[in-house]
Amino acid sequence: MVTINGEQVNAAGKTVAEYLEEAGYKTAYVAVERNREIVPRATYGEVLLEDGDVVEIVRFVGGG
């Protein structure tokens, strides 16, 4: 299991890009931190999520 934004998710073995797509995130509007390190957007398709990972996904929201 992977902890994503505080919730246990069965995402081990998926790439960051696969998880984001399945969860409905638009990669242009999010930042991803995995185990306290920022994941560069260019590597979302290469970085595999593993059991025990802790991931934070932050969405950018516009407004004023």
TrEMBL record:
Q: Which CDD domains match?
A: Ubl_ThiS
What is the name attached to this protein's record?
Answer: Sulfur carrier protein ThiS
Under PANTHER family, the record lists: SULFUR CARRIER PROTEIN THIS
| InterPro entries cross-referenced by the UniProt entry | Beta-grasp_dom_sf, Mopterin_synth/thiamin_S_b, Thi_S, ThiS/MoaD-like
Tell me one Pfam family matched here.
ThiS
**Which SUPFAM superfamilies has this protein been placed in?**
MoaD/ThiS (SSF54285)
Task: Point out the gene that encodes the protein.
Answer: thiS
Gene3D superfamilies in UniProt: 3.10.20.30
Species per Swiss-Prot/TrEMBL record: Anaerotignum lactatifermentans
